[in-house]
Amino acid sequence: MKTLTAKLSITAIAAAMALGLVGEAFADDANPKRGRVYFKMVCTVCHMTEAGQAIPPLTRSMAEWSAYMDADKHAASGKANPAVSYYVSKEYRDSIADTNKAASKFSKLPDEQLRADVKAFLVSGARDSDTPASCQ
Question: Which of 57, 64, 85, 104 ranks highest by number of CB atoms within 10 Å?
Answer without folding.
Answer: 57
